[in-house]
């Protein structure tokens, strides 16, 4: 569990750093290594690729970071609770496929179709959660199986119903214009086009941070990942917390699929692989979340997404070969894992409640 506080049901979090100076409190934050890495990467690519610091470059970075950040924030909550979700990426594609089929082949309006696909996504998230809490199987394996089921079902369904892997021309559906205002709006500033996905990312980060640090639900998340057996004995609703977190992860997948569907006015099945789900986990770990659970933050995951986006866009704008991005990402992940090792040793030295 976090060194910042210990869970105490029904009361405000106990700040273990209370009374310490600002520097010690800052050093206790899970997101600090990611913030330092972000400053270094921005300074480096700001020199190597000055276009990164223009409004166009900033819009490109935030566009990538927003998509990664929405998924990473949801995954970070699961990681803090000691769980994984590899199916979030393919769930985004599957839910957008449901929306597209209902609009393009059943004649539904945009909003009823979006509500139905959200229901499907929540059902998948609930099934993931029930399988994990009822069977005791590792969530990594359960969501890997869900990934395979969703990917195969999506490909078979789209071929069987539409006869093609792509469904397009959805913009004529009733309610599409208002849905586009919510999920596809843009703002042109200079040579940069900023998308509404940025606002969704900021809102998800703010709500997740508030829930983690200011609510009983946040206490239960930390307790579930830090000392699950002790949490159960103390009356922490570990089972319900896990179910809610998998549903939130599924909702994030639905949101990512909807943002892509509205932007492209189409859906292409087969474009999302297992790497999408792994990327969210990598970003959350770079942002300071422990793979062993009990430690991390939504803000750290958001900073990790920004760091990831700056590195990817910086390498592109600098004219480097694409493999350099994988190399740099590997270095960032290695540094994050080393930092996690230091954090784990510190946590072992802190008495648990």
What labels would you give this structure?
353 residues; mainly alpha; two-stranded antiparallel ribbon; two-stranded antiparallel sheet; 14 helices; 6 strands; 69% helix; 5% strand; globular; disordered N terminus
Task: Give an overview in words.
α3 packs across α12 and α12 crosses α14 (323-349). The chain is mainly alpha-helical. The chain has helices spanning 22-27, 32-48, 55-80, 88-104, 110-135, 139-161, 176-183, 197-214, 216-226, 228-233, 238-264, 274-286, 298-317, 323-349; strands at residues 5-6, 14-15, 166-167, 186-189, 192-195, 267-268. The longest helix has 27 residues, at 238-264. The protein contains 14 helices and six strands.
Query: What's the overall geometry?
Result: globular
**How many beta strands in the DSSP annotation?**
6
Q: Give the uncertain stretches in residue-range form.
A: 1-17
Q: How does the major sheet shape up?
A: 2 strands, antiparallel
What spatial order of strands do you see in the largest sheet?
A: 1-2
Treating each run of at least 4 consecutive H or I residues as one helix, how many helices?
14
Helix and strand pattern = EEHHHHHHEHEEHHHHEHHH
Radius of gyration from the alpha-carbon trace, in angstroms: 21 Å
**What is the CA-CA span between the terminal residues?**
10 Å
Summed over residues and divided by their number, the pLDDT gives a mean of: 85
Q: Name the helicity range.
A: 55-70%
| Derived structural class | mainly alpha
* Percent strand: under 5%
